[in-house]
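Minimal example, chain plus adenosine-5'-triphosphate.
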Amino acid sequence: MSSQKQFRAIKGTRDILPPDSALWNWFEQIARETLESYNFREIRLPVFEDTQLFARSIGVDTDVVSKEMYTFEDREQFHMAHPLSLVDVIRLDEAVAEGWQRGTIPHTSANEAEVIKLHEACREIEREGTAAVLRFLDSVRNLALGDSLTLRPEATASVARAYIEHGMQTLPGNQKLYYVGPMFRRERPQKGRYRQFYQVGAEVLGQSDAPAIDAEVLEMLLLLFKGAGLANTTLYINSIGCKECRSKYVELLREELRKVKDKLGPDSQRRIETNTLRVLDSKLPEEQPVIEKLPRISDHLCAACRQHFSELKDELHLREISYDENWRLVRGLDYYTRTTFEVTATGLGSQNAVCGGGRYDGLVELLGGPAGVKGIGFAIGTDRAILSIQEGEKVPHLPGLSVFIARMGAKAYPVAISMARKLRACGLAVELPPQEMKFGKALGLADKLGARYALIIGEDEVSSGTYTLKRLADAEQKKLSENELLEYLESERRGSGA
Ligand code: ATP
Ligand code: MG
């Protein structure tokens, strides 16, 4: 028996294999087409960013930043000559001192401690030899020369960073951007919750915060879900006010929460002080009666926010969009303002949110960008959207292999190659097996591969110029000339939407 380690995908990550991958592509294609029909354009972003970008925008009191991020040091190492002589050690010690002085070694407190240790170790080496050399080398290795980087847990911060970096506020109109790709959060893996998961997201950034923008974003989102056949989705909306009215409300909420603190669990108790609004998010059954009695933001919005929310609802009516209001729908981050929303779908158990989003008028400024830039956006959890489609009744039938070519005889081979090329040029998926097979065996394989047709090319077919096309579902056979064959299969393809 082999004692070789069997490698497996890391906990919380997974492979998306065919035929599921076709469903993923189909979903993402519908998303792209829908978003582009609203004049959103794709932005391709890096998968990792400066850790501070997420810490600042998402907030250090959130679960995402405090415990779920994949953070690593972008570590370079000092070049070390081997074996080290005392002269090398002294040179390295000098290089480190110079690096520290010039700032090429970042001035962090960890680095400072390491630099001090390293100098001491160098003096010891001069006195003691080998053991001290090893300590010295450890210190050199511990120097973090690079930056702290994080695999993105979400992409809104990256979009805002790119907006600022490329001066997009000078471009005409609002920037309507979308992205598609993986996100990373170190959460407890379960159905619909992974450590590498995928999102399709869209953001509108610009000078206007007109409720029509919010309504259009929601219309687009629901159209996308409808196009993808997501059954039983529900849209929940809320307004969490602006800087002024929300902070007054949060004060009030905190006071009320302190009074009922004893009736809440440890997570909520902690959040009263660190992230008050998030208490409203609690799903714990025993906390529900307490939370239901708390003051509601809708009674505390300022006139402008109330107006914005009411106009949004008018805009939704205009677009014939139905929704439920949910006063407990909050985003616990400081930069969120006014509109927040979530879409749930069936078949997902407790992870039933397929999309979350909202307005974040303060974000660009918070990240050091120009003042007054408003924003709104959403992120769809693709893993959950796919799960919901798979559990529903409208799983699309996606085209697979169209034609398997069964050939016999030396003269048939070049004809088979040229037919394969022509059929592929018509947009059909064609399998031309690398070796000749007996017809019976070839047809058996065609069937197992799920081909719709087998095209039979033997020496007789080559000399007569007619080919036999066999439909594998019912074994119906047709004899067709090359032109007839291409025409027939093309029209079949169009008819099946393949
Ligand atoms: P949840 O409350 O379900 O944890 P969230 O508020 O953390 O969601 P957002 O940050 O708003 O989620 O992300 C938007 C969407 O991304 C969610 O509605 C969900 O569909 C999806 N999502 C978030 N985290 C995960 C994950 N770990 N695995 C799969 N999908 C996820
Ligand atoms: Mg979450």
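The two ends are 47 Å apart (CA to CA). Residues 154, 185, 187, 192-194, 197, 199, 351, 353-356, 379, 381, 383-384 surround adenosine-5'-triphosphate (ligand 1) (CB under 6 Å).
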